Amino acid sequence: MSNFRIFKQVPRLLFGENSINRLAELVPAKKDPKDYYVFIIDDVHKDSNIVSRLNLTNADFIEYFPASKKEPATYQVDEIKERIMKEKGNQKPISIIGIGGGSSMDVAKAISVVLCNEGSSSLYQGWDLVPNPGIHKIGIPTVAGSGAEASRTAVLMGKDRKFGINSDFSMFDAIILDRTLIKNVPTNQRFHSGMDCYIHCVESLQGTMINELARGYASKALDLCELVFLADGDDDMLMTASYLGGVSIVNSEVGVCHALSYGLSLELGYRHGYANCIAFDVLEEYYGPYVEKFRKMLKKHNIVLPKGVTKSLDSAALNRMVEMTLRMERPLTNALGENWKQILTPDKILQLYARM
Amino acid sequence: MSNFRIFKQVPRLLFGENSINRLAELVPAKKDPKDYYVFIIDDVHKDSNIVSRLNLTNADFIEYFPASKKEPATYQVDEIKERIMKEKGNQKPISIIGIGGGSSMDVAKAISVVLCNEGSSSLYQGWDLVPNPGIHKIGIPTVAGSGAEASRTAVLMGKDRKFGINSDFSMFDAIILDRTLIKNVPTNQRFHSGMDCYIHCVESLQGTMINELARGYASKALDLCELVFLADGDDDMLMTASYLGGVSIVNSEVGVCHALSYGLSLELGYRHGYANCIAFDVLEEYYGPYVEKFRKMLKKHNIVLPKGVTKSLDSAALNRMVEMTLRMERPLTNALGENWKQILTPDKILQLYARM
Questions:
Q1: Closest partner residue to A8 among B12, B25, B221, by Cβ?
Q2: Residues B2, A21: Cα–Cα separation, whole Å
Q3: Which segments of chain B have a pLDDT < 50?
Q4: Quick check: B15 and A2 CB within 8 A?
Q5: What element of type H or E holds A137?
Q6: Quick one: CATH architecture of A12-181?
Q7: Where are the domains of chain B?
Q8: Per the database record, which ranges form the Fe-containing alcohol dehydrogenase-like C-terminal domain (chains A, B) (predicted)?
Q9: Which residues of B touch A (CB under 8 A)?
Q10: Which of A179, A202, B70, B148 could form a disulfide with A290 if both were Cys (CB 3.0 to 4.6 A apart)?
């Protein structure tokens, strides 16, 4: 019998130019003077015209999240929750709106969870550990590629690991896909984030834990990525690729690249998309033709990846990275089968890291 | 600003072989002895092993719907509702499960609506006319192609027109896509229903009311239809095509073929997929290369469409068909632009019907 997980989807989407102006159609209406929304906004947008289009009121709680500094962490989520509850006298918001890339959206998801569940967000890292439904939440990507808008996952850095909250209650109730929000993303960030989509589609399609429905999403997202990064595909296509790729990955699994890139983020603090690019570039052995195509994309967009990034790390750090990778059992099973430990040994992992 | 409708999606899906056995994971649990489910099941399955897998209890209300006879009608929906309420002493079910093709699923959707809204189902034919949320409902296609599993629409024959209930409350809460359920569909029905998907994807992609996201769904569904009907695509692909095509059409619009096929169904009682095939075969002028490909599919599957189907109709019947077609303003605007009335005149419609 099929043992695929229940395929979860965001039930409501708004798509198209300036659809962010229609946020009010998706958000629950304020009925009481105490009602308020929480906005988690990537701090690069602090003085942008995105914020001016949100109809913020004094009652709303605005958090500018420093997403470009490093990967979001559980302690940050916990701290923001504390501040919200303190400022609002324990009154919960009626909706949380996450605006930014994967990090800001993931923080919004995680705050939605911890506002309705006791204790630290680190308690809920794992699969289906969240007992109570979270606050209503909306995701609005301003960088495309992570697929966080489509997924159940809120990836957070803990003390010694990078790990996702994966729950039906960490999924957005609605999302807005508005291409005008991604038009000013710097070239490098646009590329790294777009490649996050490309890479997880490759891992999904090349893995064993996929079905025809998820394949439909992943292959369409992959085609669109290629149109965007190797031909003349536009921002609507990139937005669509990010969303469809995200849906696919909710319902399949990543692979070797994500397993290695988590180690890079853990010890070097690299952002997820960037770390994925660095890792993917040494994975010809597993994803040959796609790595070739990825290098064409790098060239076309004049993106130069650093080399020797793990040289400065001591053996303790490298060991933590190997351990982080070995924890990624499901992605590695997806990529390499049940015997993955015989294929991706600690030595092999170190060799791969050494080439990055 | 974007004026696309809010893109609605079924929030939970189960995909894969024998996933019907996992229905209990999707249906609300019975908590009270009075709790029951309503099953609307295409009567071709009456003695099949599909029914034996449903764990039906004596408390449940089972309706075998004669879907193969003709298009479902508002009076049938109203009559089933009356019987349910009478038999159950006005206690409503906690879920309605529609099992069959588009007709049986549409009847399930419509019953969900009328159980929570006063009066006849005919009152709700139109767009967003349903005030109260319907009963929880699940769709399980046993014929692939209509996309009814993905859509907000419950198409019903009224006294003088075929028309859909289109509401957020006529959308399934969950669906099951299990290829084992479609393996015994007769060749002709499989073809006609599959072509419903192919044709509405063509209409969607060739129309003006589409965006990149809906295009992603429609083009993937179209590719899968071609793999299934012109190459060696399998039933998982057909299930996926039907679903993705349905999602696309919720978020774009059909075209000339559907506008004409509704007339055929109204006067000749033809099932939707069959009527679409007959109409599409004369639409080279609008969908040239796709009609060519459709004819290749007909040939490959040894499907022979009837000719001269409108010859026996009197002018009153033909006029009703023309009127039915002219009512399809949105599809015809999608296909032919704002000036569609100058292109698709009553004379032109009669000429097209005469060629069928």
A1: B12
A2: 9
A3: none
A4: yes
A5: strand A137-141
A6: 3-Layer(aba) Sandwich (3.40)
A7: 12-181, 187-355
A8: 192-300
A9: 1-4, 6-19, 21-22, 25-26, 177-178, 211-217, 219-221, 224, 234, 236-237, 239-240, 243-244, 251
A10: A202
Distance CA B92, CA B36 (A): 8
Kindly report, residue by residue over B284-303, the tens digit of the pLDDT. Answer: 999 999 999 999 999 999 99
- The 3-state secondary structure of B98-161, one letter per residue: EEECHHHHHHHHHHHHHCCCCCCHHHHCEECCCCCCCCCEEEEECCCCCCCCCCCEEEEECCCC
pLDDT value, residue B2: 62
**Nearest residue to A336 via CA among A256, A263, A273, A266:** A256
Contact B12 A9 (CB under 8 A): yes
Q: Give the sheet arrangement for strand B37-42, strand by strand.
A: A7-8, B12-15, B174-177, B137-141, B95-100, B37-42, B61-65
- Residue tagged 């303190």 (tokens): A86
CA–CA distance, A167 with A6 (Å, rounded to integer): 12
The answer to whether the Cβ–Cβ distance between A4 and B14 falls below 8 Å is yes
- Mean pLDDT, rounded, for A305-333: 96
Nearest CA-CA partner of A320 in A255, A277, A253, A262: A262
pLDDT digit string (tens) for B51-67? 989 989 999 999 999 99
User: What's the CATH code, domain B187-355?
Assistant: 1.20.1090.10
Q: In angstroms, rounded to a whole number, what is the distance separating the alpha carbons of residues B232 and B237?
A: 10
CA A122 to chain centre: 17
Tokens of A51: 């914020």
Interface test with A, best of B5, B10, B12, B15 (most A CBs within 10 A): B15
Model pTM score: 0.94
